[in-house]
Amino acid sequence: MIKILVAEDEARSRAALASRLRSILGEAALIETAADGNEAVTKAVQVKPYLIFMDIEMPYKNGLEAAAVVKSQMPETHVVFLTAYDRFDYAVGALRSGGEDYLLKPASEADLREMLQKFFDVAPQAPKDATPFEAALRVWLHQHYTEDVALEAAAESMGMSPFYFSRQVKAATGQTFLELFTGYRIEKAKQRLLDTEMSVSEVGRSVGYPDSNYFTKVFKRAVGCTPTIYRSRGK
Fold first, then answer.
1. pLDDT given for residue 157 in this prediction
2. Which domain holds residue 160?
């Protein structure tokens, strides 16, 4: 049985995430919830979940503290941190300290499915006629879009030669690898510009562009306007 714990102190967000997980995984999945860090530790010991979605900011124990306790007792448990826009750097620090992944709130359906794909046999959100390669490519993009990945490294991680990988990407998407990779990053950036209050530089870092000026240049070339203007038009 799939066991997941959702640790989130905001009641509405906690209920919404639990409901979405049930809709994706089905009623056979056990989805438990916790409203603070202490309860998260207690529930984790009781339920022994395979995966925990852990909000970073919670009462009593924050998510990092709760995760440390859980991992010390159950090292096989996986933890994905939930973080709002203004704690993005905090989440990155958590990953550097041994965390496994993070989701920016509010997470989209596609983001959630792609995260679950890393831990369970869950189909990513993709067109109904998508090929196995397209589905695998979508998961790979989600896992690596924040990294500086060259074509050769991408091909190797997909178990293909650079030449064959390039042909497969072009055939499946009509784009080169660089066009696809950049486009995926820009779509994530557009979503965060409209759905969060992250600064432009924070958005850039969250999608793999640590240089704010370069991010703005790439975004403008792809979208036709700067991130700031895009945000003002969408609000």
1. 87
2. 126-235
